Amino acid sequence: MPEQAPVLEMRKITKVFPGVRALSGVDFRLFRGEVHAVMGQNGAGKSTLVKVLTGVHRHDAGEILLEGNAIAPDSPFAAQKLGISTVYQEINLCPNLSVAENMFIGRQPMRLGSIRWKELNRKAEEALAKLNIVLDVTQPLSSYSIAIQQMVAIARVLDLSSKILILDEPTSSLDEAEVERLFGVIRKLRDQGLAILFITHFLDQTYRISDRITVLQNGLFCGEYKTAQLPKLELIAKMLGKELSAFSYAAEHAAKKREAAPASKEEPVLRIRQLGLRGSIAPFDLDLSAGEVLGLAGLLGSGRTEMAKLIFGIDSAHQGEIQINGKKANINSPHAAMMAGMGFCSEDRKNEGAFSELTVRENIILALQARKGMLNFIPLKKQTEIAEKLIDSLKVKTPSAENTAGQLSGGNLQKVMLARWLATNPSVLILDEPTRGIDVGAKLEIMELILKLSREGMGVIFISSEFEEVVRCSDRVAVLRDHAKVGELSGPEVDEQNIVRTIAEGR
Amino acid sequence: MPALKRMSLGRLVWPLAALGCLLLFNLFFTPNFFHVEVKQGHLYGNLIDIIKNAAPIMLLAIGLTLVIATKGIDISVGSVVAISAGVVAILLGGDLGGVPLFPVPVAIAAALIACTAAGFWNGILVSRIGLQPIIATLILFVAGRGIAMVLTNAMVIWLYVKPFAIFGQGYWLGLPFSIYMVAGLLLLTWFVTRRTAIGMFVESVGINPTAARFSGINAKNILLGVYVFSGFCAGLSGLVVCSTVMSADGNNAGNLYELDAILAVVLGGTSLNGGKFYLLGSMIGALIIQTLTTTIYAFNVAPEISQVVKAFVVYGVSLLQSERFRRSVSGMFVKGRATA
Fold first, then answer.
1. Three-state DSSP class for A73?
2. Which of A61, A327, A345, B245 is deepest in the core (most CB within 10 A)?
3. Which chain B positions have a beta carbon within 8 Å of A420's beta carbon?
4. In terms of domains, do A294 and A360 share one?
5. Do A133 and A258 fall into the same domain?
């Protein structure tokens, strides 16, 4: 590819939302005839970058040059007029209108106040033919697959003046064959000279379709690379914001710890076989023994939370089975999971965990009370006793058990959520990001608690974005990528380097 | 639990203060307002009348308190009152000699079962179908009155069965019988919600339904339960309404009662946003509404203005309840003093 002048250049783009620096000084270049992928974990600033470019947000600093001229689109419509065509993640078409109507909605060819249907249909067929698609444009859009609908959406935004095509997560709801078909269309457009900005969180797809990669991490620009010259491992390290060499230091320490751990040969307390939910997580196997900590590691958005919610019955699986203590368990609700001896602390304490207006005592006692049944009332005295014991042992800082949970700090609230499940004495405890957003001291306390619980015989599933934490706590680690389990590490293999390698290569 | 007690009492302070103000106003401006006399062994007077007349709303408000605590609403209770009255009327029959078609207990049981079933229907729509509570109960709000009209054949059915009059007109130990019904239902509800975990579960579902589900609470059944109970309460209320006038009028029985009952709950300190609920507060709320009505009647306020007066008082009490309003008013006061 000859290095011509870029068709689009974004320089030192900064965007600040109240309390968040979404982008700070990000550079981005896009050349004619290339597919350029923007990579980063959730929250890295990919969407914000696109929204600045398409006029949804105004940037606070920096400049955007389109073919050398400074532009400042103030609406998606203005951006479209400049030649920046965007297909968003959710297809915003009307399923009950015909394909042709969808493509020309608002700009139908008219004569004397009525639509010229023949011309409309002919134009639609021509536009689709450019993408090598032949179909009956008079049929309602909903009669075609999501992939075709996606391509109709692309055909709609493209016209003669299009210079840039932005595809925001276009493949998230497509299956493998559909993805290949879409890629065929993208390659054809690229070969016709269009500049394509492609956003996805599927690593494999990035390597299949893109020519160039820009990596963002936490709103910062990490670099621009030719895809062929950036090994997957390095890409992941950059997305995590770490140097590859940084992953080796903990390995020795971890291996030492592992030697002491006895290999457990007993029947696993939790055995999962081919559990899966379409569109959420691919079928996976998982075993957990009593007294074991199993870490779930993967990038943000890799399907860790989905996996946890499937195991705990919050989402219902469409296939597979769960066995608890060797017996098949029908986990179709959190209630069923709890009755089977599981507990689950959500990563979203505020919206999925805490009852801010209830007292700390009530917050702690709820799950145990739900397990006992609502008529089997735990006397107030007993409730206070249980709550105060847990408050003491977890060192929750609250004036009393009768203060409302809404007054607690993040770390203390997290401990209350843990206390709620510890009160039920579960045999399997699933912790989704229990250390997120809390101070360092509380983090250490919670990790120590996890190790203590496992020593006492509880099976713990531990999810954290900090691979260092996962390595420190876990006996075994299941690695996830692109909404599927891609590998498992155990014993001395458990270190950060191996986790990153497994994410990159699978097993 | 001194802290607990302090908290719930604290919530009752403002409704009590409002009720106190109304009574104080009457003490000065309404002659004989507090006069209570004994006639034929029964207590008579304005205060007794207020409680007696408030009874149907109080019964409704007990059920609604739990519904509202789950962040729901049941606007069908007025229509269910009419259904209750209709069922009783056709089972007792309009025989002038006072000979019932079916025994009185059978008629009462049938009415309560019918109303509980109506509540079950609401509960299914909300908890299983997932309709928004206001829409789900709007269906029965409209259809219920139609059912009542069909039951009574669109006529007012007069009842002459003497024993049935006890609910609305009877006395026991010198006090109206309906007061005992309210007290009984209140005690029972308090016991069932506060001496089992049901109250806490209802509140948790109202505060954060997702977290409640994730904590292993069967939120659907809690929702179903409160609507069923609300239907049952409306059935009881219908018995009192029907018995008070000894007639069933499908068109007017319980008309707009749902609004007074919702108002009573809100005046009593339970938020429409769900969460903490205050049964006793709802009772005080119902008394505030009834005292207001009685006061307005005592002053011979023209009917067209009386609604406006009522609206202003309700507005004032609602503002008093708002912590933010109280804070900004006291803030103004403090600032004013500082600059003076």
1. coil
2. A345
3. 215
4. no
5. no
Q: Which domain holds residue A434?
A: 247-341+429-507
Q: What distance in Å separates residue B157's CA from the closest CA in chain A?
A: 42
Distance (Å) from the alpha carbon of B198 to chain A's nearest alpha carbon? 6
Q: Which candidate from B198, B210, B217 shows the least CB-CB separation from A351?
A: B210
Instruction: Look at residue B223 and give its three-state secondary structure.
Output: helix
Place of tokens 């304005």: B46
DSSP notation for A441-494: HHHHHHHHHHHHHHHTT-EEEEE-S-HHHHHHH-SEEEEEETTEEEEEEEGGG-
Residues 262 through 281 of chain B touching chain A, CB cutoff 8 Å: 275-276
Question: Looking at the domain assignment, is residue A2 inside a domain?
Answer: no
DSSP E strands: which ranges in A31-106? 35-39, 61-66, 69-71, 84-87
Q: Does A3 map to a domain?
A: no
CA distance A75 to chain B (A): 35
pLDDT tens string, chain B, 340 residues long: the values are 444 444 456 678 888 888 998 899 888 888 888 888 888 888 888 889 899 999 999 999 999 999 999 999 999 999 999 999 999 999 998 777 777 888 999 999 999 999 999 999 999 999 999 999 999 999 999 999 999 999 988 888 898 888 898 998 888 888 999 999 999 999 999 999 999 999 999 999 999 999 999 999 999 999 999 999 999 999 999 999 999 999 998 888 888 899 999 999 999 989 888 999 999 999 999 999 999 888 888 888 887 887 888 788 778 877 877 777 877 777 776 654 444 3
- Is there a contact between B211 and A354 if contact means CB atoms under 8 Å apart? yes
B323 touches chain A (CB under 8 A): no
Longest dimension (CA), chain A: 85
HSE, CB side, 13 Å, CA atoms: give it for residue A160. 2
What is the nearest CA distance from B4 to chain A, expressed in angstroms?
7
Structural domain total, chain A: 3
Stretch 216-255 of chain B: residues touching chain A, C-beta under 8 Å: 216-218
pTM greater than 0.80 (yes/no) = no
* Chain B residue whose CA is closest to A359: B4
- Domain identity same for A211 and A326: no
Q: Which of A241, A273, A301 is the last residue of a domain?
A: A241
- Tell whether A203 and A138 lie within a shared domain: yes
Give contacts of B 52-91 with A, CB under 8 A.
none
- A307 and A456: one domain? yes
Helix axes B257-267, B46-69, angle to 10 degrees: 80
Query: What CATH number should be reported for the domain holding residue A211?
Result: 3.40.50.300
Chain A positions in Cβ-Cβ contact with residue B275 (cut-off 8 Å)? 357
Rounded Cα distance, A419 and A403, in Å: 16
- CB spacing of B216 vs A378 below 8 angstroms: no
Angstrom distance (rounded) from CA B117 to CA B87: 13
Same domain, A464 and A333: yes
Question: Chain A residues within 8 A (CB-CB) of chain B?
Answer: 312, 314, 333-335, 337-339, 344, 346, 351-358, 362, 365-367, 369-372, 374-378, 380, 400, 402, 420
Asked whether the beta carbons of residue B3 and residue A402 sit closer than 8 angstroms, the reply is yes
CB atoms A358 and B204 under 8 Å: yes
Strands A319-324 and A270-277: antiparallel
- Asked if residue A1 is part of any domain, the answer here is no
In the listed set A183, A207, A241, which residue is the last one of a domain according to the structure? A241
**Contact criterion met (CB < 8 Å) for A352 and B203:** no
Are A299 and A181 within one domain?
A: no
Option in A314, A357, A400 nearest B207 (CB): A357
Q: Are residues A252 and A111 in the same domain?
A: no
